[in-house]
Amino acid sequence: MTPANAAPGASSFDPGLILLAFAPVFLLTIGAEAWYWRKRDPSVYSFKDTVSNACLALMHQASDAFFLWLMIKTVYSWTYSHGLRTVPETWWSFVLLLLLQDFLYYFFHRASHRVRWMWASHVTHHSSEGMNFSTAFRQSLTYPISGMWLFWIPLAWIGFTPDWVILAVGLNLAFQFFVHTRLGALDSRYAGFWRWLGQYVNTPSVHRVHHAKNPQYIDRNYAGVLTIWDRMFGSFVPEEDAPVFGITRQVHTHNPITLTFHEWRDMRADVFRDRDIRYLWKPPEWRSPRAAVTAEAMPLT
User: Fatty acid hydroxylase domain: which residues (predicted)?
Assistant: First the structure.
């Protein structure tokens, strides 16, 4: 923590490094899961997909670190110093922060599926046709551009220190690593337990639904930690049919650059082709009324 936004006696640990601090646990978990599936179902871990996920994770972490240093912490610090009040740093206030951040995460995640500008970043995470712990690493370096960090500004304005806000976000994401797995998928022995737990907390079963492209599963289960938000806002669906992972317009490549920028490229092409800037904030499946006119005007080849 820095003197500008830290309480007296606060830890010197940089919360921006929280996910890196968890890296050994993440890597050991991936290794154990890969070993488990090696003889049971080798297709769960594709070598190319796993390498691609690792490359995307490194790119994402570098981008996050750069933008945190460049501007994000400065914005949070300014907001904190001009906010409502200073929230005391106690255990109960940190629990409150985790709850509020998880609430805001729900809306960030939902917007990331329903606003194309944000989907252009988030689609990278959903583009894998596999599901294992390494899929959690599959992130985009463009999240700072699409505006993920904007969703946490209210927390600083309320009075939580910027470092606490960043720490809460990191812990939420660290928790979500462990819901990216097929372990226990549709296992009748534990189905009742997972269904009960999923009513309250994000679980592998709940999150497999979120990653599926089955029509009944698309744009469901946005929970970070608590699924009560999905239930409150009508987006919860339990896992029943076996999920088919991926996106409806599948990108068949393991190239991290293509996986990062393909939707930005397509969005730009749609805006210029139909001369309609609404593509930036409309849902990913939306098409401009001008699209049909544009198609009719195109010469047949």
Answer: 94-235
What crossing angle do the helices spanning 91-114 and 116-126 adopt, rounded to 10°? Answer: 100
Question: Averaged over 114-133, what is the pLDDT?
Answer: 99
DSSP-derived 3-state class of residue 285:
coil
Contacts of 4 (CB under 8 A, 6+ apart): 77
**Residue 265 Cα to chain centre, angstroms:** 20
Q: Which helix (H) or strand (E) holds 232?
A: helix 228-232
Listed by start position, the domains of the chain span 15-232
Q: Can you give the pTM of this predicted structure?
A: 0.91
- Mean pLDDT for the chain overall: 92
Question: Quick one: pLDDT at residue 186?
Answer: 60
What is the rounded CA–CA span in Å between residue 144 and residue 122?
Answer: 11
Tally helices (H) and strands (E) across the chain.
14, 0
What pLDDT is stored for residue 190 in this prediction? Answer: 76
The CA–CA distances, whole Å, from 230 to 102, 107, 200, 241, 288 equal: 12, 10, 10, 19, 30
136-140 own/partner pairs: CB under 8 Å, 24+ apart: 136/26, 136/176, 136/177, 136/180, 137/26, 137/53, 137/54, 137/56, 137/57, 138/52, 138/53, 138/56, 138/57, 138/259, 139/56, 139/57, 139/60, 140/56, 140/60, 140/260
Kindly write down the DSSP assignment for every residue of 50-81, as one continuous string: HHHHHHHHHHHHHHHHHHIIIIIHHHHHHHHH
